[in-house]
Amino acid sequence: QVQLVESGGGSVQAGGSLRLSCVASGYSNRYCMGWFRQAPGKEREGVAKIYTGSGSTIYAESVKGRFTISQDNAKNTLYLQMSSLKAEDTATYYCAADTSPQRCIGGVGDFRFWGQGTQVTVSS
Predict the structure, then answer these.
(1) What secondary structure, in 3-state letters, does 26-73 show?
(2) Taking Cα atoms as reference points, which of 57, 52, 56 lies closest to residue 72?
(3) Residue 103: its H or E element
(4) How many helices (H) and strands (E) does the chain have?
(5) Element (H, E) at 10
(6) Contact 52, 27 (CB under 8 A)
(7) How far is C-alpha 44 from the chain's CA centre?
(8) Which of 104, 122, 106 is nearest to 30 (CA)?
(9) CA 23, CA 75: separation in Å to the nearest integer?
């Protein structure tokens, strides 16, 4: 059974930093992993994605230069280092993964495996 467990969320002032972690278990052939977020009253959106084999990364324009996605394959762990946080980064952050190259090209509706989410609150 695939399981993704996020941690590291919390409350921080604008300009601060947080690091989110996501531990994956139950499978080993994940093709990609990503971070998504959902703010109250808004749709879930992609934040960053990493192709686990090549290490290639993709970022949403809104977080480029501030967030960094990385992985530790030995620990089956995905990270999201968030810096220069803004109030608009406030959301529930979700870790997601998939084993299909086709699904990995897509977005929210394509990823099949999801964590339970971790709350990030940025106060201005």
Answers:
(1) CCCCCCEEEEEEECCCCCCEEEEEEECCCCCEEECHHHCCCEEEEEEH
(2) 52
(3) helix 101-105
(4) 1, 11
(5) strand 10-13
(6) no
(7) 12
(8) 104
(9) 8
- Two tokens, residue 74: 């030995």
Q: What is the model's pLDDT at position 108?
A: 87
Cα–Cα distance, 44 to 94 (Å, whole number): 9
Cβ(120)–Cβ(89) below 8 Å: yes
The mean-pLDDT minimum among 50-54, 64-68, 92-96 falls in 50-54
Tokens of 83: 């810096």
pLDDT given for residue 30 in this prediction: 80
13-42 burial, b at 16+ Cβ within 10 Å, e below that, comes to eeeeebebbbbbeeeeebebbbbbbeeeee
- Tens of pLDDT, residues 111-123: 999 999 999 999 9
CA angle 46, 84, 81 (to 5 degrees): 55
